[in-house]
């Protein structure tokens, strides 16, 4: 019940002693403070902060991570193209692998006929069958792995773009729970409370958005897969 009434509970820890930040409700107001149970400094004297003030602190941390609409739309368009190309490539590969699997199936039938006709003995049949079945399993695994590898990063990356696009709106007018969820995604467990100020280091890929502010623009990417995609683009794209 307390967690529902105190959405920032568990989001931060104390910058001085490393202790957890707890919450308590007094006279209709919610306050956050260090539990003073940190192992390094049990005498921690970090002050409490009212929820409204902490809300403002979290909001200010979220604002720099907004992805401008123009950049987000461009990236979503590129993702749509990548999805289409990925689907076509996967379909082509799947058809090719199916043909190879069918060929293996035909060879297994021929092998069985050879055994039944007495052309080969049982030991030769068993060894050859094991070889063909191994080949069939390899083909099936390759098809599944390729399909998963091409698709697994597309949806998460699209969701990240949409989240980053809405980050500014959440920072300004989102609910406390929405701000907490977004802050958790951006900072992970790296948020601390220090003298009524919230601060922390962001995790990837959110850290790439800070590079955008430092460079003033982005460099046109040559591809958008995770290993090659850059969030920097030319200012003219804005």
Q: What is the compact description of this entry?
A:
This protein has 238 residues and is mainly alpha-helical. Helices cover 57% and strands 10% of the residues. The two termini are 45 Å apart.
Could you explain the architecture of this structure?
The chain has 238 residues and is mainly alpha-helical. The chain is built from seven helices and six strands. The strands form two sheets. Strands 1-5-6 form a three-stranded mixed sheet. Strands 2-3-4 form a three-stranded antiparallel sheet. Helix 2 packs across helix 6. The chain is elongated. The C terminus is likely disordered.
Helix count, per DSSP? 7
Shape: elongated
Query: Structural class of the helix and strand makeup?
Result: mainly alpha
Order of the strands making up the biggest sheet: 1-5-6
The arrangement of helices and strands along the chain is HEEEEHHHHHEEH
Q: How large is the share of residues in beta strands?
A: 5-15%
Q: Main β-sheet: number of strands, strand sense, barrel status? A: 3 strands, mixed
Please tally the β strands and state the result. Answer: 6
**Which regions are unreliable across 5 or more consecutive residues at pLDDT < 50?**
214-238
- Gap between N and C termini: 45 Å
What oligomeric state do these chains adopt?
single chain
* Residue-averaged pLDDT: 82
Our Rg estimate from Cα atoms comes to 28 Å
Helix content: 55-70%
